[in-house]
């Protein structure tokens, strides 16, 4: 019997980026725990559609150097923090100077601050995973070279969005491990925009983790844009823990690649907490995108709303796996999950798996999933009114997702996303 593949030892040797001792010790501890870590296979339930796309060669274990300039596809109308290959670039960043808000590199923390942070890292990424699940966020914890700590004191509010630009410079094969930790105090407010972009053409991997601790009454909005090139494997995780009356809102937009994977985990731990998760994915050629979400209602009187839409063309593959877990004590929970999917060709594939696990008896929960193609009657109507067939295809495809794109609360981001999606579909139907 062929032995199960394990993570190469080459991935367990972080580069020499200096970190405060408590964080360096944590990184070493996490690395030791990954020795002989099994890699996902088709028999790994949460990776069964994506395991064959995961390519972790030894040359990819090398940390990409943080050298060069950073850019963005966005016209940044707010504050900015720039990462290059997982390391913060202060000279390319513009920090807010507001009372009650601290933004720091992990490397700039003193030992006491680093010790406190080390005790909290990874706390949002636990939970009741299915048996045998593989979480690649563990690799980030063993390899991060730097990170961003965002701390909002009670009542603090960021007056403009904070843009976090993650650029991967793949002039050589290697990997990068960006890390973000957001500590939003009681009744604080922040909007984060994470944009993932790349330059260079060599095969590379980005393994990223963002954690959010939302205190009582905190309001956190997260916008996540995956716009990297076709040479980049992207494996991301976002973990959120919410306290009483807090609100977390997520808007995720992703374009396919050789492997795109995002795990979003939200845990509602305080009564009255609410979360709203929106996601849009577009794939073509032989691209791949895999979204996994998990919402845990732990206590009573919490609300969650989740809407994801996938569009796949050519021979591409999109996956949505959504799970809502209503714990036994989470009475009076309201939860709704909806996943709609659009196939643009006979060779494309979309797999959807919405799951409700309900252990309380006084709840309102619903979930649904559909997969279909463009409506020929609507297409015929537009063409009969003098609209070209290609333009009609683009209009109908954009209409399928525009309801979610319009909900992105930052105008500059919304306009960029609409333009990028429109161009993506124009190219898709041009080549059809």
Automatic annotation (TrEMBL):
InterPro entries: Fe-S_cluster_assembly_SufBD, SUF_FeS_clus_asmbl_SufBD_core, SUF_FeS_clus_asmbl_SufBD_sf, SUF_FeS_clus_asmbl_SufD. Residues 172-400 form the SUF system FeS cluster assembly SufBD core domain. It holds the Pfam family SUFBD_core. Signal peptide: none annotated. NCBIfam families: sufD (TIGR01981). PANTHER family: PROTEIN ABCI7, CHLOROPLASTIC. This is Fe-S cluster assembly protein SufD. It comes from Marinobacter koreensis. The lineage of its organism: Bacteria, Pseudomonadati, Pseudomonadota, Gammaproteobacteria, Pseudomonadales.
């Amino acid at each position: 019997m062929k032995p199960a593949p394990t993570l190469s030892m080459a991935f367990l040797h972080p580069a020499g980026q200096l970190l405060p001792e408590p964080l360096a010790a944590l990184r070493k501890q996490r690395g030791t725990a990954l020795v002989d870590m099994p890699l996902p296979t088709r028999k790994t339930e949460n990776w069964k559609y994506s395991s064959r796309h995961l390519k972790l060669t030894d040359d990819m274990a090398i940390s990409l150097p943080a050298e060069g300039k950073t850019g963005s596809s966005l016209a940044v109308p707010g504050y900015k923090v720039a990462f290059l290959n997982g390391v913060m670039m202060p000279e390319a960043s513009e920090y807010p100077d507001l009372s009650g808000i601290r933004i720091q590199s992990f490397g700039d923390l003193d030992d006491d601050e680093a010790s406190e942070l080390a005790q909290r890292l990874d706390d949002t990424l636990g939970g009741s995973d299915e048996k045998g699940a593989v979480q690649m966020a563990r690799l980030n914890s063993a390899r991060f070279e730097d990170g961003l700590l965002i701390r909002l004191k009670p009542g603090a509010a960021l007056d403009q969005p904070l843009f976090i630009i993650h650029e991967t410079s793949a002039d050589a094969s290697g990997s990068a491990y960006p890390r973000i930790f957001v500590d939003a105090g009681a009744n604080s407010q922040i909007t984060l925009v994470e944009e993932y972009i790349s330059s260079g053409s060599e095969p590379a991997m980005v393994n990223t983790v963002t954690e959010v601790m939302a205190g009582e009454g905190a309001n956190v909005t997260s916008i996540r844009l995956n716009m990297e090139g076709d040479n980049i494997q992207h494996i991301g995780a976002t973990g959120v823990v919410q306290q009483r009356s807090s609100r977390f809102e997520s808007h995720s937009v992703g374009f396919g690649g050789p492997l795109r994977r995002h795990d979003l985990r939200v845990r509602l731990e305080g009564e009255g907490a609410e979360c709203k998760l929106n996601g849009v994915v577009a794939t073509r050629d032989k691209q791949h995108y895999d979204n996994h979400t998990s919402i845990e209602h732990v206590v009573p009187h919490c609300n969650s709303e989740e809407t994801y839409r996938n569009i796949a063309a050519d021979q591409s593959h999109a996956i949505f796996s959504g799970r809502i877990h209503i714990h036994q004590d989470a009475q009076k929970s309201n939860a709704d999950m909806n996943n709609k999917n659009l196939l643009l060709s006979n060779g494309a594939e979309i797999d959807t798996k919405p799951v409700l696990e309900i252990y309380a008896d006084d709840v309102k929960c619903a979930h649904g999933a559909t997969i279909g193609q463009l409506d020929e009657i609507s297409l015929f109507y537009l063409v009969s009114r003098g609209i070209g067939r290609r333009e009609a295809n683009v209009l109908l495809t954009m209409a399928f997702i525009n309801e979610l794109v319009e909900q992105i609360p930052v105008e500059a981001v919304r306009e960029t996303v609409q333009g990028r999606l429109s161009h993506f579909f124009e190219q898709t139907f041009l080549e059809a």
